[in-house]
Design goal:
It is globular, with a radius of gyration of 25 Å. An 8-stranded antiparallel β-sheet has the order 3-2-4-1-10-9-11-14. Strands 5-6-7-8-12-13 form a 6-stranded antiparallel β-sheet. The chain has a 5-stranded parallel β-sheet with strand order 16-15-17-18-19, with helices on both faces. It is an alpha/beta fold. The protein has 19 helices and 24 strands. Bound molecules: 2-deoxy-2-amino glucitol-6-phosphate.
Length: 619
Amino acid sequence: MCGIVGYVGGRPCRDLLVAGLEKLEYRGYDSAGISLLADGRVETVRAVGNLANLRAAAGMDGGEDGGVAVAAPPATIGLAHTRWATHGRVTEENAHPHGDCSDAIHIVLNGIVENHSELRAELTEQGHSFSSETDAEIVAHLIERNYEGDLTEAVRASFNELRGHYAFAAMHAAHPDTLVAARQECPLVIGIGEDELFIASAIPAFLAQTRRALAIENGEVVTVTAAGATVTDAAGTPVEREVQDVSWDEEAAEKGGYETFMRKEIDEQPDAVAETIADRLPSRDRVDLSELEISPEVIAGVRRIVIVACGTSYHAGLVGRYAIEQWARVPVEMDIASEYRYRNPVVGSDDLVIGITQSGETADTLAAMRLAREQGATVLALTNIMGSQATRDADAVLYTRAGLEIGVAATKTFTAQVACMYLLGLWIAQQRGTLDDERLSELISELKALPHKIQETLDSVSEQVQAVATAEHEGRFFLYLGRNIGLPVCLEGALKMKEISYIPSDAYAAGEMKHGPIALLDESTPVVCVATDSPTLDKMLSNMAEVRARGADVISIVTAGSGRAAEDSDLMIEVSRTDWVLQPIVAILPLQLLAYDVARMRGLNVDQPRNLAKTVTVE
Ligand code: AGP
């Protein structure tokens, strides 16, 4: 998740563009860059690290006046970008903007171009030379190849050759008054000012300059000049679109118009999962995790997989255990990192140890990874942060691509981690030949459909969840019950309720209930039952009947269209149907929302819950 900004108008725009990037730094901040067009020439400065480095490189920090935009008159058209690396290391060359062979065309892109390898091979064969490892640079060369004097048509033709999940903006030295941008899934919005226009990934980038915004939809191309914006579809047909007046204040702007970061991040889950799986599923019958650089021999020789993590990451690992054992038939051991590191575990060279940590800085998880590595195990880090300590304490790294998560309570990083667990389970099965081609393709297409299923579920459950929260937010205790792959969902749901609403909440394997916890039940206890379709649904339904027999309220999370749980539920919340092993990634959504709504109704600060920190670097 990167941030893009563009400007065309009458004002010198270097500072405007960098100020816009500062408002988008939550989207990514490992490197940044700016390109400005003046006197028919494009000048570019890029820097690794946060925006202070870009400011210094651009001579904006009052240091020696070496950087860009010293041209006279200063540039009034430009592009800027803040990066969250996905393709290509964090280097200056890989930072955006990227240019074509003649440096006349410059682009900035947010998202992922899935067919970048074949396009790069094609363009290289045709004589194009690339200066970065990124997928994004492709676009500059495609526009160069399609350019016949009309920048909009060159962008449209290039747009139609791309596959993936992206939004980009382009500038051409021969068109000092025009920017052209296009959108496929990733957000893109135009800021309409007085004789000036902005292009951005999100409204906060230009809100300090104008409150008039034009949202660009999927499959659209927009041509922007100081006089206005012209929207067309992929075929070139003009599209009418209404300009909106934005009423947000500064604080709301930081949150993209949401009341809290957590609520915004819950809604960012379709994007986070889409970006996380995108190019790792290059076709309908293959998983590509070649980025891991773990040899097939190592994977074939793995005797056991051990997953170590803390908190929400531990729960993602639990889902992963079910999936990996189910598909790849490798035994998976799961342990809380703070326990694993002190129990003198038996681990060795034919073990694959996976350390899951979104921050990449959690002390106990790092220590557990180091311990396993010292004992000769192959260690894989699953993290959301490029360059974090976990990436240095591992032999291989698999990145979730959820973008920066500011809310202390993890949401989008959880679903992105679960998506990575599914990718890993299928990839190991593919390497070890434990799934037949038909089943593998079936699961790959279900995985590819998950971003839409997540969006669908978020749209369909919020009212029902609000009703439960209204009824139960003064509760003294919540119990969560689940079986098989539903159990990690319960554990995560209970953790969310605990950490942001401060209501004591417990999650239990439903089969364990009659061995003790059933004593907790009375008619005031809300019992959330995860009863999505799975081989243990019948058992789960009888556990729900036991709970209802004690007068407790059963709120069940079920697979859409199943209806099997109706008679055993006081309230049923349906989530989108997918393969039973993939259900947790949608079943968790109403539980995130329930904890959120309950906490809000109790007037609590969900972004900064008491006693908690986003990253636990102490032991
Ligand atoms: C989850 O909402 C909490 N913030 C916490 O449990 C967290 O998952 C845990 O501290 C692990 O963090 P990590 O993924 O950064 O290692």
